[in-house]
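Researcher: Please translate sequence to structure tokens.
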Amino acid sequence: MDPILLLVLFGAGALGFYMAWNIGSNDVANSMATAVGAKAITFKQAAIIAGVLNFVGAVFVGSHVTETIKGNIVNPELIGNTTYLLLGFIASLLAASIFVMLSTWKEMPISTTHSVIGAMVGFGIVASGLTCINWTKLGEVALSWVLSPIAGCILAFIIFRTIVKLIFAKENPVEAARVVGPGIIGITVALIVSSLFLKTPLGDKLGVTGLQQILAISGGCGIIGAVASALALRRIKIRQGDEYDTVERIFRKLQIVTSCYVAFSHGANDVANAIGPVAGVFSIVTSGGTFNPVAEVPISLLALGGIGIAIGCLTWGHKVMKTLGYR
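Model: Translation complete:
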């Protein structure tokens, strides 16, 4: 291989690792901040757990086929020149990485996915003008910036008020938790399992893609979770005058489980933000200049992204976690 192309590949790989590190340092807060804020685990424990689960999710469940241009925001056919695409992938990785790093330094939580999309939009406009941008798709992304926080706020309010009414407002909250808790835990387990199949490549890897299959498996896991939690809740010892703390301990453990799921699925999904553009560079270089909007991702690239995310969690993950968990 031409030494210059080899250097380009090495540079793209280094930038992919840098982006993965930034993803780990900023996005780890999405999974672990609530558990830290609830004092279910410490900052150090959260960083270690998130680092391990992000790596496992990225390497073992991360998709081996990824979009080289995130979100199909830019039309590569209107750019045409593969050299521009090659440079655009590298420039987008560098721009998104710097922005995410500065945001993490200032302890600001942001979306790394939208950072990559924004960088690709900037590259597309410079390379081929405004016409190569899919403005409808970009509008949908912008709409999600408004709708996601509102929807999350409404759902969290409803769920919290329901838990308070069914458990904490009762005269005997521990007994109420024993009655209502298994149902809540069962539903949580079912949602986690179904999300793993629907929102990560796990379903494709296991050959479970039909909605009925997913509902049956997640429902079965939910029932098992409800029965197991009902048996466990019966064995909880209560100290006089310590009922509310006992109930809080139950929910802290559930908080850790849900945080672990988010960390695992984050690694499986968001590793593509770092290695997607790298896979695009790899595809162009190894195919002799042919661009493919969907590129094969070797296990070595997934491992590179997984290691970068894990190191990001362990080194700078506490910064944004502090903002979401306590501020």
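Researcher: Any highlights?
Model: The beta strands are 65-67, 294-296.
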